[in-house]
């Protein structure tokens, strides 16, 4: 029974990580013309599943994420590029689990997993996007590094913050078996003051609140633009204006979903950090 419950728990937590990765992957802070974008830490959650449960579960979660991401649309010039850019690239993030029991295994594993994804998309660019990426192999490296490296660096900084490490350690305690937690905690957690957790939590929560404010601003701005498009015209008899209106509404919906997702995630992290200061057993 315990083994069954353990497997069920792993499936549920991997599903949560996939859902978070998928949601954040829809938030394109910067989008490249032939595919690829900078997102707010979407790659981390697949590597987190690998950190908790090992590389096999991590790779499975990554492949599932890649296939799920394809359902929202994808760039492709060849079946080989589809395989390398999606299931293989995201699956490579799961290799982070190889380093889970090493010192700083969370950070080292994350970098290694991202490097695996980078190799996959570079090979896709070199083999199948040659005409669109000048400079052959080096062109593919530069193109893909443009969006992967900034996200990797930003995420690495965030997960290395003492307060964030404490929050992740707290979550890990409730996810993995006690004997596993003892090893992972020893290698990856560190002492952190309640004050630093409060400051970090407040900052992260403020960023979440800012995302909601920005979403509200975009709504007002888009509504004003829609009024300007529709005023003084028979909208549905004017095809160009009708198409412009449709695109505005579509973009507005995507932006609101993305910003609200960021807001919820950041607020949840901030609240978790603030609540953690009330724990009796301070690390």
Along the chain, the helix and strand elements come as HEEHHHHHHHHH
Helix content: over 70%
**Which CATH top level class of the largest domain fits?**
Mainly Alpha
- Ends distance: 33 Å
Structure characterization notes:
The protein is mainly α and 283 residues long. It has 2 domains: 2-160, Arp2/3 complex 21 kDa subunit ARPC3 (Orthogonal Bundle), CATH 1.10.1760; 194-276. The protein is 76% helix and 1% strand. The chain is built from 10 helices and 2 strands, in the order αββααααααααα. It has helices at 2-25, 42-53, 55-70, 79-93, 105-128, 136-160, 162-175, 178-188, 194-230, 239-276, and strands at residues 30-31, 37-38. The chain has a two-stranded antiparallel ribbon. Residues 1-5 have low confidence and may be disordered.
Q: What's the layout of helices and strands?
A:
Layout: H1 2-25, E1 30-31, E2 37-38, H2 42-53, H3 55-70, H4 79-93, H5 105-128, H6 136-160, H7 162-175, H8 178-188, H9 194-230, H10 239-276
Antiparallel strand pairs: 1-2
Helix pairs in contact: 1-2, 1-3, 2-3, 2-5, 3-4, 4-5, 5-6, 7-8, 7-9, 7-10, 9-10
Properties at a glance:
Arp2/3 complex 21 kDa subunit ARPC3; about 75% helix; 2 strands; mainly alpha; 10 helices
In short:
The chain is an all-alpha fold and 283 residues long. Helix content is 76%, strand content 1%.
């Amino acid at each position: 029974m315990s083994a069954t419950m353990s497997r069920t728990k792993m499936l549920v937590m991997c599903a949560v990580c996939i859902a978070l990765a998928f949601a954040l992957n829809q938030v394109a802070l910067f989008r490249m013309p032939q595919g690829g974008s900078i997102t707010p830490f979407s790659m981390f959650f697949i590597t987190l599943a690998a950190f908790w449960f090992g590389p096999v579960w991590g790779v499975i979660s990554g492949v599932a994420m890649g296939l799920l991401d394809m359902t929202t649309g994808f760039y492709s010039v060849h079946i080989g590029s589809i395989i390398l850019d999606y299931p293989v690239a995201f699956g490579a993030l799961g290799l982070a689990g190889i380093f889970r029991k090493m010192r700083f295994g969370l950070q080292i594993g994350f970098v290694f997993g991202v490097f695996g994804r980078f190799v996959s998309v570079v090979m896709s660019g070199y083999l199948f996007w040659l005409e669109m990426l000048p400079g052959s192999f080096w062109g593919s490296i530069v193109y893909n590094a443009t969006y992967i490296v900034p996200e990797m660096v930003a995420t690495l900084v965030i997960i290395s913050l003492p307060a964030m490490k404490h929050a992740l350690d707290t979550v890990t305690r409730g996810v993995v078996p006690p004997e596993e937690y003892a090893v992972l905690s020893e290698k990856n957690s560190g002492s952190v003051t309640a004050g630093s957790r409060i400051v970090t939590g407040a900052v992260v929560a403020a960023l979440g609140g800012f995302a909601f404010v920005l979403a509200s601003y975009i709504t007002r701005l888009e509504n004003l633009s829609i009024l300007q498009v529709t005023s003084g015209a028979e909208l549905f008899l004017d095809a160009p204006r009708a198409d412009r209106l449709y695109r505005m509404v579509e973009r507005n919906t995507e932006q609101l979903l993305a910003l609200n997702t960021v807001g919820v995630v950041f607020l949840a992290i901030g609240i978790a950090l603030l609540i953690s200061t009330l724990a009796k057993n301070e690390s």
